[in-house]
Amino acid sequence: MKHVSGSLVATTSFVLSLAVAELCLRVFAPVPDPYDKYKHGIPPNPYIKFEFPANYRLETQAEEGLPGVQGHNRFTTNNMGFRGDPMTRSKPSREFRIFMVGGSTTECIYLDDSDAINRILQTELHEHTSAAIDIKVYSAGQSGQCVDDHISMIVHRLVHLQPDMLIVFCGINDLTKSIFHYDYAHYESTTVAKKYPVFMFVATEFQIPRRLYYVGKRLFATDRETLEEITGRSTYKKKIQLRKSVPESADTPRTDLDSYVNNLKTIIGVAKAHRISLVFITQQTTWNSAVDPEAKNWHWMRYRDGKTYREDLMDEALEGFNNAMRQLGLEDSVPVYDLARRMPKSLEFFYDDVHFNVKGAQTAGKGLASFILEKNLIPNALPQ
Questions:
Q1: Which one, of 247, 377, 378, 237, lies nearest residue 310 by Cα?
Q2: Is the separation of the CB atoms in 44 and 336 below 8 Å?
Q3: Which of 30, 40, 198, 212 is the most buried (most CB within 10 A)?
Q4: Which residues, other chains included, contact 298 with Cβ-Cβ below 8 Å and sequence gap of 6+?
Q5: Which H or E element spans position 261?
């Protein structure tokens, strides 16, 4: 009887301790439910798959030795969820409103707000345009987004915010999606019942199992999760080690250029219909560099879908996307800022395969400003 009584007391104490811990975590330190969007059947926003919340605040930190980036940096969004100054939904009469749309090279998550490409562009344009115009440059860039995501952002949100100019900077994520055989026609299944067992849905209603889930994700992350995870402190050395662990393949990366072209044509059509000035930017990389032999040591994005592709083959594949953009620019009179041909493939400007360091963002932002001014894309005054 004493043994039974002792076991009962121990079990009761354990259960009560778990209940108290759960309550304290729920009240004082809650973490999000990893399956929340699946439990509700649809993503938080069915029209725009990826977006930053309004007034978002994140302090990022560059790992030691990351080329051209160091210390802690602020990444923030304004009252409408974009990186840049506060904005009103109805555009002020003096404002010339520019949105930059793209993936992580537009996002610049490990650069401070003051060093991001949209801020550099805004400052440069302010200094060289009429005082009668108040130029604002907002960034809608977000890691992992490709051209169909840009369409969603443009048609479902940006056109309603009265942009005067759209700057579309894309290519690298569309190459990645091509390699993974992404379906741009969106016939992909949205069913998750077979993928995630019911008991996981039930367990993650509580804080303790949620924490166990996130610990497990860190300890047992798949290769793709390791590559795609964005953390407050950069983890590029870990990604590089993963790339180095897989021998280079002589296979040619798959490219879905037809889908890319179709989607760019959609963006061109939307911009023309809404009388929005449009600028394209080609995607630069440090792949196959002839000027910086050290650049290859910081590559991680050549590892895709279980293969590490050769630099020259990845460079050639991405140039296919850039050439498609250049050709559409010629055919439809869209100015193309050819960053891929202007910026050297060097760690002087990048900290890895494609992402700007501080000097790279400054150089690209100033160069883009000069290009926009040379093309006379900003008027001296706005109609009243």
A1: 247
A2: no
A3: 212
A4: 67, 236, 240, 286, 347, 350, 351, 352, 353
A5: helix 257-273
> Do 345 and 290 touch, CB atoms closer than 8 A?
yes
The helix (H) or strand (E) run that includes residue 177 is: helix 172-179
Query: For 280, what's the count of Cα atoms within 13 Å in the CB-facing half-sphere?
Result: 29
45-79 burial code (b ≥16 CB/10 A, e <16):
eeebeebbeeeeeeebbbbeebbbbeeebebebbe
**pLDDT score, position 337:** 98
Are the CB atoms for 168 and 280 separated by under 8 Å? yes
Tens digits of residue pLDDT in 108-142: 999 999 999 999 999 999 999 988 999 999 999 99
In the numeric block, which tokens belong to residue 167?
Answer: 């700057």
Pairing of strands 307-309, 303-304: antiparallel
Looking at residue 155, what is its pLDDT?
A: 98
Structure tokens of 308?
A: 């590490």
User: Both tokens of residue 336?
Assistant: 């193309």
pLDDT (mean) for 336-361: 98
Comparing CA positions, the residue from 135, 122, 87, 118 lying closest to residue 382 is 135
For residues 281 and 342, what is the distance between their CA atoms, to the nearest angstrom? 11
Beta strands 165-169 and 277-281, pairing class: parallel
